[in-house]
Amino acid sequence: MTYPNMLQLALHIILSCILSFTVAQNPVDTYAPTVNVNCPDTPNSLVRTFTSQTQVLNTSETDYIASRESYIISNAWSNWLGNASDIGYDFESLGGKFPRIGIAVGGEGYRTAQYGAAVLSGLDWRNTTAREAGTGGLLQVASYLSASSGGSWLLGSLLMNDWPSINELVYGNAENLSSWMVDLDLIVPSSPSVSDGSNQEYWGSILASVESKANNGLPTSATDLWGRMISYHFLNETTRGNFYTNQTGHGAGQLWSQMSLLPNFQNYTMPFPIVATDSRKAGSGITTNVPLNSTVYEITPFEFGSWDPSLSAMLQLEFAGTYLTNGLPANPSACVAGFDQASFVMGTSSSFFNAVLNDTDGNFGFDTSDGDEQGMNFIFNQLLSHTPSSVMNAANWPNPFKGVNPGTFQDSSADQLELLDGGSNYEKVPLSSLLVKARGLDVVVVVDGSADDQNYWPNGTSLLTTFERISSVLSSSHQPMPPIPGTAAQFVSTGVNMRPTFFGCNLTQGQPDYPIIIYLPNAPPFDGHAPATNTDDTQFSYTSKFTAVFINQAFWNTLAGFEPKATSSDPNWGRCLQCAAIDRAVTPRSDICSQCFAQYCYDPNNLTSLSELPDRQFIFVNPDPSGLQKVKQWLEGDKSLLAGFIVAIIVGIAGIVGFIFWWRRRRARLSRYSRVDELREDDEPWKYYDGNSLELTRRMSIT
Fold first, then answer.
1. Cα(365)–Cα(374) distance, rounded to whole angstroms?
2. Euclidean distance between CA atoms 440 and 437, whole angstroms
3. What is the pLDDT of residue 671?
4. Which of 60, 230, 474, 672 could form a disulfide with 478 if both were Cys (CB 3.0 to 4.6 A apart)?
5. Read out DSSP for 181-194?
6. Distance CA 118, CA 129 (A)
7. From CA 126, how far away is CA 594, in angstroms rounded?
8. Are 322 and 336 in contact (CB under 8 A)?
9. Tens digits of per-residue pLDDT, 680-697?
10. What is the H or E stretch that residue 642 is in?
11. What whole-number distance in Å separates Cα of residue 669 and Cα of residue 692?
12. Strand partners, 379
């Protein structure tokens, strides 16, 4: 380890001291898994295997879905639809049989966490405005909620805080939620300076957590740092008052497998959660997007594994981190517990370091100018000096599937899995997890906040990737996709990437049994206002005002639908959303719903046009320019004012310099003719106290 200058060396020494103190004194080491745990007594109970034809859900997942649909969802449908007369149906005639619905929230950093939050708020019965608009209620009738990358930050935050409303989660409440900390930069929260003392405290605590894991013999990487940073900003135990202290574990010790202990999970209040993550073949060193046949994994409260035909295996999540061969540990006490830290799950699903971490020089390539790259370089090099690992640019998971399906599974002979961001294969919305045949979904809501084009809007790439992956890799294990535009260019030209769209509306006899997809892409405000939601993936902080504007825009878009050739909201959109959600359970389709489908359904034989969405603005406008951005905006706004200001400064400086010269010459002249008078009785010498020289300065008189 070399240090280019004395400042770097000093910072290393300071951070090492902080790290040593933190390890000895603070609860952050609860991030460390427990090793040498007794394994289950039942042989082969850690890993279950199956085929595409013998798929079966984990019994705990099956029980959860059955209980939620029986005790929660049936009442939620009644709350949302009422007697269903508004959409042309009779609720009682449904006979308690409802479509099974899933929601998939895509990811790419803070942007998609906030976009997903806004959309879920717009679908939440607890939000009065959404409920009155008719959209609020869909969240309550959903059986599943999947997420990846930045979407997993939203999901993990919701789950680990026991399913609060979005307003409470993002902005906090007076009881026990302090708010998201997205105004504090994810990497350099105190200031862009690497030498900032508060940044050093933050990094020291994070490094202590990761080192405690490494000290127990488990591999670490940049993903561990990343996950711990995420936990400070999205999990509980962190407030603005203790952010830079070590009073709590800041999310350390919160396990994904212990989610089932939360009250709202035990009450079946929340949809069943799934986090998706991609992988690359161990040892391949891939630094670009991975191929479509790379194994995609999922993490639920009960299991970790893949439904891909090449693997088709699941591990009990509570024993993740255990090295297994053919499903068996090396000995009865070789199991690991506590590896499934919530922060590490969220970090794994958003581990994009294969694309930005240079293995050669150990530096990061963030496209930012606010200290993030320097900060990540610094803390990463500290990690290397304490806990080096052979693979640093992926999430390292001990392989529990070694020996499984050696003919098809890419990592059957590997000791370690190298997991990556859930969008590394371009499927940025984890739709595949909801199309697993055993789950039997009828409707899937796709919340797409991807930044696919030059202005950071989605263009259908994620759906196209899912379509291609299911056709070429997953046809035996997953439901087929409904018809969608064939290219990204067609998504754009038809305008379906800029408004809500229903895919798969019209099933006909003999067609594959695909679900309806309700597509909710991030799009410019329907009313023509300047957009604030199309931000860069690597924007790692948002001011409070920025977040409020962002979520407000996306929320109102969720409630608005669209009116063809207008910049107004659709007053019938809430009913149309209800029509799409209930459609697979009713026949024939009502006249009201038929009208809705004529407007919102994608029909490959009758294509719509982007021209039906007039006066949209596509160029991002910062709703809260601050710091240097404000200065830059001011400078660009009035260059003549700037010139005058500079001239005034120069004149002022010249005047001050001239006065100093005049005063010094006059002082020198007077001193030649002065004498010190004796202090008279009425003098007040303390008025002439010179605090610098600590002497009394006697009055000088001119003779």
1. 10
2. 5
3. 41
4. 474
5. -TTS-SSSSS-S-T
6. 13
7. 29
8. yes
9. 333 332 222 233 333 323
10. helix 639-671
11. 24
12. none
- Check whether the bond before 588 is cis (ω within 30° of 0): yes
Do 244 and 332 meet the contact criterion of CB atoms below 8 Å apart? no
- Does the pLDDT of residue 22 top 60, yes or no? no
Residues pairing with 562 in the sheet: none
Q: How far apart are CA 562 and CA 520, in angstroms?
A: 12
Q: How far is Cα 648 from Cα 668, in angstroms, rounded to an integer?
A: 31
> From CA 429, how far away is CA 421, in angstroms rounded?
11
Residue with the two structure tokens 């002082």: 667
Asked whether the beta carbons of 183 and 130 are under 8 A apart, the reply is no
Structure tokens at 561: 């639908």
- In this prediction, what percent of the chain has a pLDDT beyond 70? 84
What Å distances lie between residue 523 and 192, 528, 696, CA to CA?
31, 11, 72
DSSP assignment of 589-601 equals PPHHHHHHHHHHB
As a whole number of angstroms, the distance between CA 677 and CA 67 comes to 99
- Asked if 104 and 427 count as a contact pair (C-beta separation under 8 A), the reply is no
- Residue 364 per-residue DSSP state: B
Ramachandran category for residue 179: left, alpha or beta (phi over 0 → left; psi -120 to 50 → alpha): left
- Spatial neighbors of 222 by CB under 8 A, at least 6 apart, are 351, 353, 357, 376, 380, 383, 392, 393
Cα–Cα nearest to 327, from 382, 405, 428, 427: 405
- 467 near 491, Cβ under 8 Å? no
**Contact predicate 463/446, CB 8 Å:** yes
Token readout for 186 is: 């994810």
Neighbour-count burial of 261, counting CB atoms closer than 10 A to its CB (0-12 exposed, 13-18 middle, 19+ buried): exposed
Determine the 3-state secondary structure of 696 from DSSP. Answer: strand
The position carrying tokens 């105190």 is 190
Residue 331: DSSP 8-state: S
| Three-class DSSP category at 430 | coil
Per DSSP, helices labelled H in 72-142 are 74-81, 109-122, 128-133
End-to-end C-alpha distance for the chain, whole angstroms: 71
| 3-state secondary structure at position 314 | strand
Q: Measured between alpha carbons, how far is residue 372 from residues 117, 188, 360 in Å?
A: 25, 6, 20
472, 508 Cβ separation under 8 angstroms: no
Question: What single letter denotes the amino acid at residue 94?
Answer: L
pLDDT for the residue 525: 97
Q: What is the pLDDT of residue 2?
A: 43
Q: Which of 40-44, 427-431, 606-610, 663-667 has the lowest mean pLDDT?
A: 663-667
pLDDT above 60: residue 536:
yes
- Name the residue among 472, 367, 328 with its Cα closest to residue 109: 367
Which residues lie closer than 8 Å to 228 by C-beta, 6 or more apart?
Answer: 31, 206, 209, 210, 250, 251, 252, 343, 347
Q: How many CB atoms lie within 10 A of CB 281?
A: 17
